[in-house]
Amino acid sequence: QPIPEELQNGEGFGYVVAFRPFGTTTWIQTVVTSPDTPRYVFRNESILPFSPYEVKVGVYNNKGEGPFSSVATVFSAEEEPSIAPSGVSATSLSSSVIEVSWTAIPWKMSSGRLLGYEVRYWNNGGKEESSNRVKAAGNETSVRITGLKSNLAYYTAVRAYNSAGAGPFSATVNATTKKTRKYLEFKAGRDIMVSLLEEMMHYSSLLPLQVLYRTSSQTDMNVLNTDKTTAELFLQFNEDYIIEVKATTEGGDGTSSDQILIPRLAS
């Protein structure tokens, strides 16, 4: 932080920047003559990425040198990852969720700090350039992509990134989301009892489901949460009902099924 003018105590005020590679004993010094300058950049092609340096900053004016700051450790700039993740695979978990996993790239602290991975995905009807992206933290090696369309092939690729930028993408892999099939059963009773089944293959029992329903005259959906693949709704006579189902995960809600219309019954 620049020294306020009232504390400079005279003409010819400036800074002395001293630095040295961490672990060495000889200081390199340079003078910054502008009292308002908040930074100094040292350029040298031989500096390795993310190299630690000890730095201290002193002050001077026409009367002589003032004190130095305490010594701080700073690092030279990082370089972006140079290799792509390997072992990338994609697995369909449901009609709206796929899981992408990969092997962590070997990383040296001398190159910087790995912030995480970026997963790019697009469907077979879209263009790779307009793909969507999700991120995973540096110690994670898988991510779930939710909200996808059923029975559709999705392509994915993974790359690592840090503060300097992103590395190359991995080879592209793909997975096809599962088909969704719907069944309705009607049973007699004083009210209409509807049994609705949303089949999501083997993963259905692992995903909480939401059954959303309303009358055709309503705007807000009623919600029934269940961890089963069936739900019973007691619906009034003389009303049309609209029903849909969607899965919920920690990553967010999945895509809703097609809406099902149950027409009113007079008796």
TrEMBL record:
Gene3D superfamilies recorded: Immunoglobulins (2.60.40.10)
Q: Does the keyword Signal apply?
A: yes
Q: Name one GO cellular component term.
A: axon
Which keywords, in A-to-Z order, does the entry hold? Cell adhesion, Cell membrane, Disulfide bond, Glycoprotein, Lipoprotein, Membrane, Repeat, Signal
GO terms for MF: cell-cell adhesion mediator activity
Q: Where in the cell is it found?
A: Cell membrane
Q: Kindly state a single biological-process term from the GO annotations of this entry.
A: brain development
Task: List the Pfam families hit by this protein, alphabetically.
Answer: fn3
Q: Which CDD domains match?
A: FN3
**Tagged with keyword Glycoprotein:** yes
What start and end residues bound the annotated signal peptide?
none
Domain Fibronectin type-III, by residue range, is 1-79, 84-180
* Protein name, per record: CNTN3 protein
What species does this protein belong to?
Answer: Anhinga rufa
